[in-house]
Amino acid sequence: MDKEISYGSDYKFIPATSIASGIGIEVLPDLYCHTIQIVNICLVGNPETKNFVLVDAGMPDSANEIISVTEERFGANSRPQAIILTHGHFDHVGAIIELINHWNVPVYAHELELPFLTGKLSYPEPDPTVEGGLVAKMSPMFPNEPINLGDHIQTLPSDGSVPHLSGCRWIHTPGHTPGHVSLFRDQDRSLIAGDAFITVKQDSLYKVLTQEMEINGPPRYLTTDWQAAWESVKTLEALKPTVAVTGHGKPLSGEMLANGLNKLVSEFEQIAIPDYGKYVNKNRH
Ligand SMILES: [Zn+2]
Ligand SMILES: [Zn+2]
After folding, report:
1. Cβ neighbours, 10 Å, residue 186
2. What is the distance in A from the centroid of ligand 1 to the CA of 175?
3. For 64-121, how does the pLDDT look when each residue is reduced to its tens digit (9 = 90+)?
4. Distance between CA atoms of 33 and 54, rounded to whole angstroms?
5. CA pair distance 23, 130, nearest whole angstrom
6. Closest Cα partner for 42 from 56, 29, 28?
7. CA dist., res. 207 & res. 22, Å (int)
């Protein structure tokens, strides 16, 4: 393994899963979503052209699964032209080092996310005291030490374009993390939202296990700036996406997506912001 790149010292396999684990969905002919335990990865690109990118890099220990899903869809020995990260949480970069070593492709993230991806800064510790049940209580076992991707990680272009995804633009959607981005394609109004909002109530272990559909704010125990998170959801709602893949939960489209986002924007304080927790200050605005 390349010496300059390494996972954080608390990196480990997390024994959490859901009924969607291992399942792939072709959301659009060129947008494929696959669930690794509890988190989604996306392969964006038409299987006939072989030009595609991977969005996010799954849970720890999932590289073999990601590589085989990729080869199933794009052919033996195929590899993406780049990996785009919505943000650097452990469940979105879990297999990134094995993937870099296997594919030798560039990785892109927002510049405000780079300190967490180059070993400089740890994410704030998950808040196990936040209102929100069992997953929050499990959260202290989640890795939060920064990984170090050295010079394998690059900043997303400042003009909003997404490398190797023409017609797609990245949108800064901070709140869940400082450099969180979502990817939007104007032509068909498709959205990859990362954890800016999710379609499962992650605070309920039961709902994570069963993937019960429910549009929700970002995962509570890891979100540190709720006002920014609210603004980000407003930004995404204003784009009027017709289909959305989120970091957690099932893809959503049409009226269910429109109504769900609308409700999330207008009732963000009730739906998304926890009543208590160390990153909560409901009186701040
Ligand atoms: Zn996250
Ligand atoms: Zn996540």
Report:
1. 10
2. 10
3. 999 999 999 999 999 999 999 999 999 999 999 999 999 999 999 999 999 999 999 9
4. 10
5. 30
6. 56
7. 17
Asked whether 283 and 275 are in contact (CB, 8 A), the reply is no
Beta-carbon neighbours within 5 Å of ion ligand 1:
89, 195
Instruction: Enter the pTM of the model.
Output: 0.94
Q: What SS3 string covers the chain?
A: CCCCCECCCCCCCCCCCCCCCCCEEEEECCEEEEEECCEEEEEECCCCCCCCEEECCCCCCCHHHHHHHHHHHHCCCCCCCEEECCCCCCCCCCCHHHHHHHHCCCEEECHHHHHHHECCCCCCCCCCCCCCHHHHHHHHHCCCCCCECHHHEEECCCCCEECCEEEEEEEECCCCCCCCEEEEECCCCEEEEECCCEEECCCCHHHHHHCCEEEECCCHHHCCCHHHHHHHHHHHHHCCCCEEEECCCCCEEHHHHHHHHHHHHHCHHHHCCCCCCCCCCCCCC
Ligand nearest to the CA of 88: 1
Q: What is the CA(172)–ligand 2 centre distance, in A?
A: 16
Report the separation in Å between the CA atom of 89 and the middle of ligand 2, taken as the mean of its atom positions: 6
